[in-house]
């Protein structure tokens, strides 16, 4: 239903933030993973029609969204990465204002606003000025406004920034409760946020698509290539220069280092189960020696 064909984005300073991107999305949760500057927000802004591709075409239900974006915008819920709110309004006032902008019938909007306030645990602050909210509470208002119109396509750019662990879990549950026929695209660097909820992962690096695949495919591609062994702190620098390293855990007896490598890095190294974080580190690292199969 959402099709991205040969899309590139060159900014006015001639910098290419996205090169020749191709994706076909139908339904379900899609996790956009990539380092800072990978081009996640650039892609999301173009899908949300707030920015135009320099080349290529994005279609929704078969129509070019940059020729006529009305249909897409009607079906869209969007949380931009930097989401500004009006500090003098309360949550309820702000959400009513957004509902009016979206052309939602006010009676319907009021019911929906009270549902969303509940879902996002904002009851206690619903009638207080947003200016006095914590960062995580403001973020939850941003999530709520994106869901006001029961959108068919939802774009969340870094939705979990500033959320505490309970609220992150609540957000994951909220995503999982949304119907499966919606397209939900969410970007994050917190790999665990998409590990459980995203059916598919778009992994990107330096504006290029590395893979669009299922979680399991990414994990399978690293099978047998993730290792751990105990080492000393003095060895770490060398190891990091030589290998792609993941988590390093300090123990009484030394440091347990996690390495992603096609060959066994040391005789005592043992194979461990790959995680999505390993895949992210491996495929976005300049050191990797091969492409995903
Ligand atoms: N308006 C702009 N003009 C010029 N370059 C830009 C502009 N917006 C973004 N860029 C550049 O494009 C690249 C991609 O930026 P983008 O914001 O899409 O990355 P991102 O993956 O969302 O990163 P982050 O994880 O930090 O949010 C970056 O190198 C950025 O500096
Ligand atoms: Mg971004």
UniProtKB/TrEMBL annotation:
Q: Does the keyword ATP-binding apply?
A: yes
Per its UniProt record, what Pfam families does this chain match? ABC_tran
Listed GO molecular functions? ATP binding
Asked whether the UniProt record includes Ubl conjugation among its keywords, one would answer no
- Top-rank taxon of the source lineage equals Bacteria
Q: Which family does it belong to?
A: Belongs to the ABC transporter superfamily.
Q: What is this protein called?
A: ABC transporter ATP-binding protein
Record organism: Clostridium weizhouense
Domain named ABC transporter: residues: 2-231
List the keywords (alphabetical): ATP-binding, Nucleotide-binding, Transport
């Amino acid at each position: 239903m959402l099709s991205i064909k040969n899309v590139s984005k060159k900014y006015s300073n001639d910098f290419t933030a996205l090169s020749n991107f191709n994706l076909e999305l139908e339904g379900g949760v899609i996790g956009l993973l990539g380092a800072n500057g990978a081009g996640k927000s650039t892609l999301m802004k173009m899908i949300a029609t707030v920015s135009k591709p320099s080349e290529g075409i994005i279609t929704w239900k078969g129509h070019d969204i940059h020729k006529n974006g009305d249909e897409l915008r009607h079906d869209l819920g969007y949380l931009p990465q930097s989401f500004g709110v009006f500090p003098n309004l309360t949550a309820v006032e702000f959400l009513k204002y957004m509902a009016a902008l979206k052309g939602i019938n006010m009676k319907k909007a009021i019911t929906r606003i009270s549902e969303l306030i509940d879902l996002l645990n904002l009851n206690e602050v619903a009638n207080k000025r947003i200016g006095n909210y914590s960062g995580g509470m403001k973020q939850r208002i941003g999530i709520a406004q994106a869901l006001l119109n029961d959108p068919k396509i939802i774009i969340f750019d870094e939705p979990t920034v500033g959320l505490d662990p309970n609220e992150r879990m609540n957000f994951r549950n909220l995503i999982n409760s949304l119907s499966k026929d919606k397209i939900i695209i969410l970007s994050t660097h917190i790999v665990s946020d998409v590990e459980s909820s995203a059916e598919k992962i778009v992994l990107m690096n330096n504006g290029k698509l590395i893979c669009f695949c299922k979680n399991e495919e990414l994990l399978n591609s690293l099978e047998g290539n993730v290792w751990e062994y105990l080492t000393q702190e003095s060895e770490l620098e060398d190891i990091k220069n030589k290998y792609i390293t993941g988590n390093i855990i300090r123990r009484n007896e030394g440091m347990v280092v996690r390495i992603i490598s096609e060959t066994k890095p040391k005789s005592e190294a043992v194979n461990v189960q790959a995680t999505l974080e390993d895949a992210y580190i491996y495929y976005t690292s300049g050191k990797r020696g091969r492409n995903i199969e």
